[in-house]
Amino acid sequence: MTTSVYDFTCQTPGGKKKSLADYQGKVLLVVNTASKCGLTPQFEGLEAMYEEYRDQGLEILGFPCNQFAGQDPGSNDEIMEFCQFNYGVSFPMFGKIEVNGGGTDPLFKYLKKEAPGTLGTQRIKWNFTKFLIDSSGEVVKRYAPTVKPKAIEKDVKKLLA
Fold first, then answer.
1. Which of 44, 53, 62, 100 could hold 58 in an S-S bridge, CB 3.0 to 4.6 Å?
2. Containing domain of residue 59, as a range?
3. Could you tell me the CATH number of the domain that includes residue 14?
4. Do residues 124 and 98 touch, judged by C-beta distance below 8 A?
5. Per the residue annotation, which of 10, 37, 65, 83 is the catalytic one?
């Protein structure tokens, strides 16, 4: 039985397996991302937050997804290059996944169950839905795609304290 995010293994952009147990004791912000979305500039805010709080125990984990209007059509390599070149992304990014439907990644199935959206829906609404996880692996809160990283900062600081 799954008891925390640490029970999951995800795929890196290069196809290697990475256990989320490697992030035990860290505060995590898990985000489904896209390179060609109106919300893509949130990478800038996510990177700024990561730079400010990573030494205090924050990890941001990006999961590219092409399920919303085909806004992340590139290969994993193309996505990583875009994120690094345009936004200087240094936080961990993973291989492209699905967050809704029959092919939903197991991590996102778990996150959606632990932190349902408005009116209890488990569906991810759009790119840049964010899940905040405390240092013991518990899902604390889900944020809508339009919630900017700066607006999450106070919640992150509380968990890092």
1. 53
2. 5-160
3. 3.40.30.10
4. no
5. 37
